[in-house]
Specification:
Layout lengths: L1 H12 L15 H8 L3 H16 L1 H4 L11 H12 L4 H20 L1 H6 L11 E3 L5 E3 L5
Antiparallel strand pairs: 1-2
Helix pairs in contact: 1-6, 3-6
């Protein structure tokens, strides 16, 4: 259920165009699984941003309906108004959605191919620390 809501909101923020596929047509299940397995603050921020997107059309476009009940045109207006809102929390919520959605969208092999970039290789599951050593992502040395 939570993945379906997250996918829907990200698909509204990143719709398909005539030239590029959007998150409404791409399968980003693996990327979402990594986000859901990520740090608790990342998940909290994402869920808060989604909640704000779902309930704020009354603040952004003056429609007293949650976002899923709006027409596609009104949802687009809501997303645009949320991006340009005078209220920082609404703008920041949209920035969180754009950041997570953009990472998922930009890493998808079909998007990278359309843009002329090679697909990413598999994530090795490690990262570099400040002293230059490699540490396993999930509790390694």
């Amino acid at each position: 259920m939570r993945a379906a809501i997250v996918r829907w909101v990200l698909a509204v923020v990143f719709p398909s165009t005539a030239k590029l596929p959007g998150l409404d047509t791409l399968d980003v299940s693996e990327g979402l699984a990594e986000v859901f397995a990520g740090p608790p603050l990342l998940r909290l921020g994402l869920y808060g941003a989604i909640f704000a997107f779902l309930i704020s059309p009354v603040l952004t476009i003056g429609w007293p309906l949650p976002a899923p009940l709006l027409s596609r045109h009104r949802r687009d207006q809501h997303a645009n108004a949320m991006s340009n809102s005078r209220w920082y929390l609404l703008r920041q919520s949209m920035m969180m959605l754009k950041t997570i959605g953009g990472l998922l969208w930009g890493a998808h092999p079909s998007v990278r191919a359309k843009l002329g970039f090679p697909a990413y290789t598999a994530d090795p599951g490690s990262f570099r620390t400040s002293d230059g050593t490699s540490t396993a992502r999930r509790g390694g040395a």
